[in-house]
Design brief:
Keywords: NAD, Oxidoreductase
CATH superfamily of the largest domain: Dihydrodipicolinate Reductase, domain 2
Organism: Glutamicibacter bergerei
Structural class: alpha/beta
Number of strands: 17
CATH architecture of the largest domain: 2-Layer Sandwich
Domain GFO/IDH/MocA-like oxidoreductase: 147-279
Number of domains: 2
Number of helices: 10
Mean pLDDT: 97
Shape: globular
Bound molecules: alpha-L-sorbopyranose
Largest sheet: 9 strands, mixed
Domain Gfo/Idh/MocA-like oxidoreductase N-terminal: 9-136
InterPro entries: Gfo/Idh/MocA-like_OxRdtase_N (IPR000683), Gfo/Idh/MocA_oxidrdct_glycsds (IPR050463), GFO_IDH_MocA-like_dom (IPR055170), NAD(P)-bd_dom_sf (IPR036291)
CATH topology of the largest domain: Dihydrodipicolinate Reductase, domain 2
Low-confidence stretches: none
C-alpha cells in the first residue's frame, strides 16, 4: 500500500533488453512529467555480477538476485516484471498477494491458465487498492494514441478492414544460436507471443472491439539451432498469419514474423473505414497518415500528420514543437500512466483483463494453426 510522504519505491525484475528499456523510463519519468516521485530502489537479476553492473549503469540504488525478498521489502511499492514470460505469473501473483502495484511486460503470461489466474488475482487485489497493468508500450506512441482517439470519435465511419503486420528478421540466419525466446517452456510461443501480441493488442485498442474468431497458419522455418551443448530443437513458431473476425463486423489480418529478411522492427498498421483510412509505420513513428473520403475527388490522398506538437498525446512534457520522439519514449509514457493510476486509484489500462483477452486470441490463433487453419472461436467471445 502507498506509504505517505515519500517517493514510491520501485523494483524492476529482469535487467536485459526490457529491463533496460523500463529502467530508462523510470529514470526519465520525473524529469519529463510532473508525476509522482519515484525512487529506483532495486534491480533484480539472476547473475549477481551482471545485475550489479546493470544496476549501477541504469541508475538503481541497489541490485539483488532474490526477487521474493525484494518484493517483501517495506520500501518497495511497485514491482515491474521484465523477465522471460515463464516467470511472469509466479512473480506477479506473489507481488499482488503482498499488496504491491504490478506492471508486467507483454505478453501477460505464457499460458492461458496463467493469464486467467493472474487476472483473478489482479481483480482481487484491486479491491484493496492495488493497481496492475500490462506493458503494451505501443499504445503509448503518440501517433497511435491519436489514431485511437480519432477512431473513437468515429472519424473513419464504419470500420471494415484492418491489416497489422509486425516483422523482424533476427532469426533469418539459420546459424543464429538458440535463445530462451525459441523455447516454448520459457517464452510460451515465438513470433506469436512476442510480436503478434502487440498486433492483437493494437486491434483491440484501436477499434474497441472484441475479437471473436481466428483462422491461422504458423511455421517454424528453422527447426533446430545450435545450443550451448549441441543442436537443440526449436519449440516455437518463427511466423504466423491470421485472419480475425471482430465483433463490430470488421475483418483483420495479422501477420508476425522474425524471419522477414530486411525488416528490423517493422510494425505497420492500416485501418480502413467507410469514410476514411489510417496508416502507421513504426519506422516513421512520429507520423500518422490519414485519408478522408469527404475531401473533393481532385484533392483526395493520404495526408501525413507529424505527431510532435504540444497538443498531441504525451508531447506536453517533451520538447518544443516539431522535435521528434523515439521508441524508448513509449515506455516513459507507459510509466507515467501507471503512476497516474496509482495516485488516482483509477484502474490502469491495459489491465490484466486486457492481457487475458489478448492471450485468448493468441490461443485461438495457435489452435487454428494446429487444425490447418480451421476457424476457431476465441474463448470468452460472443
Ligand atoms: C523482441 O522481438 C522485441 O523486443 C519484443 O519483445 C518487443 O515487445 C518489441 O517491442 C520489440 O521486439
Amino acid at each position: 500500500m502507498l506509504r505517505t510522504g515519500s517517493a514510491l519505491g520501485v523494483a524492476v525484475i529482469g535487467h536485459s533488453f526490457m529491463g533496460k528499456a523500463h529502467s530508462q523510463a523510470w529514470r526519465n519519468v520525473n524529469a519529463t512529467y510532473d508525476s509522482t516521485l519515484v525512487s529506483m530502489r532495486v534491480l533484480v537479476g539472476s547473475n549477481p555480477t551482471s545485475t550489479a553492473e546493470s544496476a549501477a549503469k541504469y541508475g538503481w540504488e541497489e541490485s539483488s538476485t532474490d526477487w521474493r525478498a525484494t518484493i517483501l521489502r517495506e520500501d518497495i511499492d511497485i514491482v515491474d516484471i521484465c523477465t522471460p514470460g515463464a516467470l511472469h505469473a509466479e512473480i506477479a501473483l506473489f507481488a499482488l498477494a503482498h499488496g504491491k502495484h504490478v506492471v508486467v511486460e507483454k505478453p501477460l503470461a505464457n499460458t492461458l491458465a496463467e493469464a486467467e489466474e493472474m487476472n483473478a488475482a489482479a481483480l482481487a487485489a484491486a479491491e484493496r487498492g492495488v493497481i496492475s497493468m500490462v506493458g503494451f508500450n505501443y499504445r503509448r506512441i503518440p501517433a497511435l494514441t491519436m489514431a485511437q482517439r480519432m477512431l473513437a470519435e468515429g472519424r473513419l465511419g464504419q470500420l471494415r478492414q484492418l491489416n497489422i503486420r509486425y516483422y523482424q528478421d533476427w532469426l533469418v540466419d539459420d546459424s543464429a544460436p538458440m535463445t530462451w525466446r525459441l523455447r516454448k517452456d520459457e517464452a510460451g510461443s515465438g513470433a506469436l507471443g512476442d510480436l503478434a501480441s502487440h498486433a492483437v493488442d493494437q486491434l483491440r485498442f484501436l477499434t474497441g472491439a472484441q475479437i471473436s474468431s481466428a483462422s491461422a497458419t504458423s511455421r517454424t522455418f528453422v527447426t533446430e539451432r545450435a545450443g550451448d551443448s549441441g543442436p537443440e530443437q526449436v519449440s516455437v513458431d518463427d511466423a504466423i498469419w491470421a485472419t480475425l473476425e471482430l465483433d463490430n463486423g470488421a475483418i483483420a489480418t495479422v501477420e508476425a514474423s522474425r524471419m522477414a529478411t530486411g525488416r528490423k522492427n517493422s510494425l505497420r498498421i492500416e485501418v480502413y473505414g467507410s469514410q476514411g483510412s489510417l496508416e502507421f509505420d513504426l519506422e516513421s513513428m512520429n507520423f500518422l497518415k490519414l485519408y478522408e473520403a469527404s475531401h473533393d475527388a481532385g484533392e483526395q490522398g493520404f495526408k501525413s500528420i507529424m505527431v510532435t506538437e504540444p497538443e498531441h498525446p504525451y508531447l506536453d512534457g517533451w520538447w518544443p514543437t516539431g522535435h521528434v520522439l523515439g521508441w524508448a519514449e513509449s515506455f516513459t509514457h507507459e510509466i507515467r500512466d501507471f503512476l497516474a493510476a496509482i495516485v488516482s486509484g483509477i484502474p490502469a489500462s491495459p489491465s490484466f483483463a486486457d492481457g487475458l483477452a489478448v492471450q485468448r486470441v493468441l490461443a485461438g490463433i495457435e489452435d487454428s494453426a494446429t487444425q490447418s487453419g480451421a476457424r476457431v472461436k476465441v474463448a470468452g467471445a460472443n
